[in-house]
C-alpha cells in the first residue's frame, strides 16, 4: 500500500493529512515530504493521522526525526486524530511522553 500526504495551510497552522500505511517501503516518501516543510517559531504543524492504518518501526523513526527537527527549530508539532491502536503504539514506545499526541478528537475538514 502507498502513503498519501497532502498539506493545507490555515494562517500559521500547517495541517498535513497522511493516509495509508507507513512502513519500510512508504516511510521514505513521508520523510521527503516532511523535510520540505520550512519550520520556525511562527508556524505550528499538525499531522492528521486519522487515515493511517499501520505504522512500523521505520515509520516511527520518521516521526521521531521530524519531532527532533521541529524541536531544534522551536516549531510546534502535534500528531492528531490517532486511532486508539496508533495511540497505544506511541504509548508503548514511550514516544507519547515526548510528543504532543491527540487521540481521535476534533477532526479538521478533509482536503
From TrEMBL:
STAS domain: residues covered: 3-111
InterPro entries: Anti-sigma_ant, STAS_dom, STAS_dom_sf
GO MF, one example: anti-sigma factor antagonist activity
Family: Belongs to the anti-sigma-factor antagonist family.
Function summary: Positive regulator of sigma-B activity. Non-phosphorylated RsbV binds to RsbW, preventing its association with sigma-B. When phosphorylated, releases RsbW, which is then free to complex with and inactivate sigma-B.
NCBIfam families tied to this protein: ant_ant_sig (TIGR00377)
Entry protein name: Anti-sigma factor antagonist
Source species of the chain: Lysinibacillus halotolerans
Source species taxonomy: Bacteria, Bacillati, Bacillota, Bacilli, Bacillales
Amino acid at each position: 500500500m502507498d502513503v498519501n500526504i497532502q498539506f493545507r495551510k490555515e494562517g500559521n497552522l500547517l495541517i498535513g493529512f497522511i493516509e495509508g500505511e507507513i512502513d519500510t517501503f512508504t516511510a521514505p516518501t513521508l520523510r521527503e515530504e516532511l523535510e520540505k516543510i520550512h519550520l520556525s517559531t511562527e508556524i505550528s504543524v499538525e499531522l492528521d493521522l486519522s487515515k493511517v492504518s499501520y505504522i512500523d518501526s521505520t515509520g516511527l523513526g520518521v516521526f521521531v526525526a521530524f519531532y527532533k527537527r521541529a524541536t531544534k527549530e522551536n516549531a510546534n508539532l502535534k500528531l492528531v486524530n490517532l486511532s486508539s491502536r496508533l495511540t497505544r503504539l506511541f504509548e508503548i514506545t514511550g514516544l507519547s511522553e515526548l510528543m504532543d499526541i491527540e487521540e481521535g478528537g476534533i477532526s479538521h475538514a478533509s482536503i
